[in-house]
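Journal club prep — side note

Before the paper discussion, L.F. wants everyone to see what a predicted structure for a comparable chain looks like in token form. Sequence:
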Amino acid sequence: MSDSETLAERFARQARQWVGAAGTATERIARAGRLQLDCLAIRRERARELQALGERYLELLERGGEGRPGRDSTVEQIRRRIADLDATLRGHEAEIDRIRAVAGPDRGAPR
């Protein structure tokens, strides 16, 4: 506190700092919440892709020697989509972990 700063000015300055810190923490927690919702949607999409992959694989098996899953373009497209979803999910989860690390153990994103 400088000599010219009054008690009221000091309190006002500290209050602004506290409000700024609270706003930043709230923004981090909100971001983590949005990321968790995105993760849920990604997991659902991944489950749909896995179902499509299973159905395609079964279709190829039922054809007998005609279709080979390892060389089927549809199987490969689904596999790539699953890999992309997995990468996105890992990125989101890493970001959530970073937010939790900054926020502290009791103030991170909801679980």
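L.F.'s comment for the group: The chain has a mean pLDDT of 84. Keep this in mind when we get to the figures.
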